[in-house]
Amino acid sequence: MTITCFIRYEIDPFQRDAFLQYAENWGRIIPRLGGRLIGYFLPYEGTSYEAWGLVGFDSLADYESYRGRLRADAEAKDNFAFARQQRFILREERTFAEAVS
């Protein structure tokens, strides 16, 4: 089974550039730690406070292993700390979905 983790972010629209940096950092970190990065998406037209990150995994067990590597990785820890310090993420939600053939 292939699953996709859909991460919905509510961001401070006045800190769009900070979220951009955060997302670019994940672009290096996620693949290195075993996630299949589908992409990060910033608001362009319409709603100014909603962003998305999509990451693929073969199973929920693979996702859990990935989360363990993420918690132990220095660059990932730094990126989480950057988000906490700058406070550009107001809310974050995760949904897991499987593709329909």
TrEMBL record:
This is NIPSNAP family protein. It comes from the Bacteria. Residues 6-99 form the NIPSNAP domain. Pfam families: NIPSNAP. It comes from Duganella aquatilis.
